Amino acid sequence: MRDALQRELEARHPAARIEPLAGDASTRRFYRLRPARSGDGQHRSLVVMDYGEAVAPGDIAKTALFQQAGLRVPRIEHVFDCGGALLLEDLGDRTLEQEVLDELRSGPEADGPARRLYDLAVDLAADIARQGSEALAAEADDPGRSRLDAARFRFEMDFFLEHYASALMGCSRAAGLREALHDLADRAASGPQVLCHRDYHSRNLMVLSDSSNADSLALAMVDIQDAQPGPDTYDLASLLRDAYVDVPEGWVDPFLERFARRARLEDAGQESLRRRFDLVAAERMIKALGTFGFQATSRSQDRYLEGVPRTLRRLTSTLPRLDQGATLLELLDRSGLLTPPR
Q1: What is the Cα–Cα distance from 95 to 71, expressed in whole angstroms?
Q2: Which range, of 7-16, 66-75, 123-132, 280-289, averages the lowest pLDDT?
Q3: Which of 40, 138, 333, 339 sees the fewest Cβ atoms within 10 Å?
């Protein structure tokens, strides 16, 4: 931990224990702060998020935006004077991934805990799309606001080529691969736009209540700093094509219908929605491979490679359903990019 941040923490919370936490794919560092017990024996842990540089004002504004929309995210308890760090409400350690993994591996029940939790996760994604978009529309328009548009998706395809195809796999690309990837990017970015969490998966969804009581289940989100407008199926694709959890394929279409109803999508036809979902899912899976390659080759974080085989399997099954998808699949195969790294 940085010296200035350590000193401020010790002054604000004397005798508190500070425990490092696992980070995410960003350069931020996280710590759990456990204050000394007060006279009544009560204490409440908090989370320190250290950017290591100035906190972007937009990150704080995004917390306010989600809260205004009635969406559960960690409260900001304090902005440190030393700069570059926030003190956040601690939502605990129970992620959606941890809660559902064993059941999904052994065979999920039709109305078991995993399905009920995913019902909530789909509903929350729809609330981001509807309530979050309404709150965003009420703000002053910002012409410089980042968007998940065609230019961004093209950048992510190039990122994949640089960090996964070249740096990690050492592959020479087949002629036409970049053009095919850019075509996918353009088509994935078309269609209605809503507010997106952008990294909406099982490790960023926290289970807050007692999962033994079906009536008390509740989810909250972390890692909202990259939230921005994007395709209406983006968060749902992130959730149901998660690199860390195998969501049963039979759940996908019912979840699409549930999402469309709750989000009140104008174009809620199942065929159109499924096409948009598959396009965005394919783009996002390729983008995820680029992130995995970058983390492994530039930051020596090999743990991210555990998501590669699952992502490749899903990409291989998704692309044939898309227009021009079979051509892209063939180009990826010809480039040697459909075999997991050893």
Answers
A1: 17
A2: 7-16
A3: 40
Helices (H), the chain: 3-12, 57-68, 96-106, 113-127, 133-137, 150-160, 177-188, 234-240, 252-263, 270-298, 308-318, 325-334
Contacts of 177 (CB under 8 A, 6+ apart): 161, 328, 331, 332, 335
Vertex 307, ends 18 and 50: CA angle to 5°? Answer: 25
Residues 217, 9: Cα–Cα separation, whole Å: 33
Per CATH, the architecture of 13-89 is what?
A: 2-Layer Sandwich (3.30)
pTM for this model (two decimals): 0.91
Separation between Cα atoms, residue 76 and residue 65, nearest integer Å: 13
* CATH superfamily of this structure's domain 96-334: Aminoglycoside phosphotransferase (APH), C-terminal lobe (3.90.1200.10)
Q: Please report, for residues 6, 7, 8, 10, the alpha-carbon distance to residue 3 in angstroms, rounded to integers and kept in the order given.
A: 5, 6, 9, 11
Compute the distance between CA of residue 254 and CA of residue 119 in angstroms, rounded to an integer: 10
Q: Under a CB-based contact definition with an 8 Å cutoff, are residues 207 and 99 in contact? A: yes
Helices (runs of H) and strands (runs of E) counted in the chain? 12, 9
Cα dist from 130 to 193, 195, 259, whole Å = 11, 8, 10
